[in-house]
Amino acid sequence: xxxxxxxxxxxxxxxxxxxxxxxxxxxxxxxxxxxxxxxxxxxxxxxxxxxxxxxxxxxxxxxxxxxxxxxxxxxxxxxxxxxxxxxxxxxxxxxxxxxxxxxxxxxxxxxxxxxx
Length: 116
Prior knowledge:
Distance between the termini: 35 Å
Strand content: under 5%
Order of helices and strands: HHEHHEHHH
Mean pLDDT: 90
Largest sheet: 2 strands, parallel
Structural class: mainly alpha
Shape: globular
Radius of gyration: 14 Å
């Protein structure tokens, strides 16, 4: 698994996520290729939380991982990542809050699609 595949596994909470972490740990930073974290990644992961496939801690760790990686470009979802990485500042991670976040995200994506 290369760096791009590894980062996509982590961003999407894929089945080979643990293997992806191991692969990234074994690579040098110079070998890492940049990847874009998209609204689709965020929508997928928020849906996994609401389906109880991942926990609030998993979601927070996911956001912290994105926040600390120079090879992940998350400009499109940076406000959401910040909120998830800082639940004590931005409001706890709960089904109600994540449901609101997902609804806002979907509305925003729909508006952008309508304009573009």
